[in-house]
Predict the structure.
Amino acid sequence: MRTWLFALCLSSSALAFGQTPNLPRFDQKPLHFGFFLGISQLDFAVQHAPTWPEGIYHVVPQSSPGYLVGIISDVRLSPYLNLRVNPTYVAGERSLLIDGVDRATGIRDWYTRRVESSLVRLPVELKWKSERIGNHRWFVLGALHTTYDLGSKAKVVDDRLFKLQPVDYGFDLALGTDLYFEFFKLSPQLRWSFGLGNLHVDDDTKLAASLPVVRHRSQDYVFTFE
């Protein structure tokens, strides 16, 4: 994360004192559109059961990188505030590293249970912008989102799966910079996403019983083009 923030600062400094401002009227548009893509580091925030079920001794969530793409609809509310709606698709997987008894061998060992996700997210966000300096300006974002997991197997009857509820909600926070080039605006940003819903599915399996609370977490590295 430090490397990412350093790159943001370096790129902003390089454009801070450009000879001629690029796209001088861009921020005066009442409505504009764009798109974005990035890498999403998907993870879980879990709460363990007070006592472990028989055959399970510990469970550790592990994050994995995925990708995200989306489109931007931006409405100008004031010189320093914009309202944005950004439908987003996120694909990736998360893993649970389990210290338990393998049912196939009956031997205690560490094994991994992978959970694939195909998330359709609808965030509504506010973007607060700093004063423009040369060809860059800083911004922070705050958003509320609803998410639907197209890959949810909540209703599948299979004890080998770790299942998640398909619908979630939460909020996002982001920090980034707008970089104005001759024909477009590039905005790298670092985004954190926090799910508030409990994704736990009570399917009477020992693994589900060991994690009564499961929430979405992710850290995204995003590039927007407007």
About this structure: The CA atoms of residues 130 and 138 lie 5 Å apart. The chain has a mean pLDDT of 90. The chain has two helices and ten strands.
